[in-house]
Amino acid sequence: QVQLVESGGGLVQPGGSLRLSCAASGFTFNQYYMSWVRQAPGKGLEWVSNISNDGTNTAYADSVKGRFTISRDNTKNTLYLQMNSLRSEDTAVYYCTKGGIRGQGTQVTVSS
Q1: Which residues contact 92 (CB under 8 A, 6 or more apart)?
Q2: Tens-level pLDDT at each residue, the chain (112 residues)
Q3: N or C end: fewer C-beta atoms under 10 angstroms in the chain?
Q4: How far apart are CA 40 and CA 26, in angstroms?
């Protein structure tokens, strides 16, 4: 079955960087768009970014545009999210998604 395993979260100071990874299995990874979404404490899910199956097309929420970069390695069945210039409002659990399926998430905390 579909399995998505996120990693790379942690505690970082404002202005810092993190790179999230999502290892995918159970489906043909290179045939699907993939997305990152996040959920801040006490809030609903927020779409962050998505990427086409071949990686040529990407889209970002206005809140992260210019700071985050989504990418994928179809040879490794892995999705990435490079996050730079992190802000306190980026604090959330980050999930990779395939359609309506998401992994267990990885916590990102931005705090001094």
Answers
A1: 38, 39, 40, 41, 43, 46, 107, 108
A2: 999 999 999 999 999 999 999 999 999 999 999 999 999 999 999 999 999 999 999 999 999 999 999 999 999 999 999 999 999 999 999 999 998 899 999 999 999 9
A3: N
A4: 28
Count of alpha carbons within 13 angstroms of residue 59, beta-carbon side? 8
In single-letter form, the type of residue at position 102 comes to R
Contact 100, 45 (CB under 8 A): no
Token pair 């999210």 is found at: 81
